[in-house]
Amino acid sequence: MEVGYRDKEKSLDNVLIDTGSASSILKAELVEDIGIKLEPEDTIGSVRGVGGSEFVYIKKIDSLSIGDLNVEDFKIDIGEMDYGFDIDVIIGMDFLQRTGAIIDLDKGTIGKEI
């Protein structure tokens, strides 16, 4: 997965596709080096899931892409993501619906077409 912010890009490998999550979330410590950090204009929120809840801040990023799925000017949650296992990003329904993603569980693929 690629995330773009202010003319910088970062690749993240440990991506969880979560159709039960309304929003997508990036691990804060992994995107600080491209300038994604809490700023006064960012909104503070919280996310809740099986692993508990955590505070996040909401940041508008330039782009987010997985293969042929791409969004621009995308609002995403940024948080600690300390869930006890190694995840860089959770891709939620906000991204999946906006891109028209098709998930093929039999083939283990995600994209615009199967």
From TrEMBL:
Pfam families from the UniProt entry: Asp_protease_2
SUPFAM superfamilies registered for this protein in UniProt: Acid proteases
Sample GO molecular function, one term: aspartic-type endopeptidase activity
One BP annotation, GO: proteolysis
Domain of life assignment: Bacteria
Domain annotation Peptidase A2: ranges: 13-52
Keywords: Hydrolase, Protease
Protein name: Aspartyl protease
The organism of origin for this protein: Halanaerobium congolense
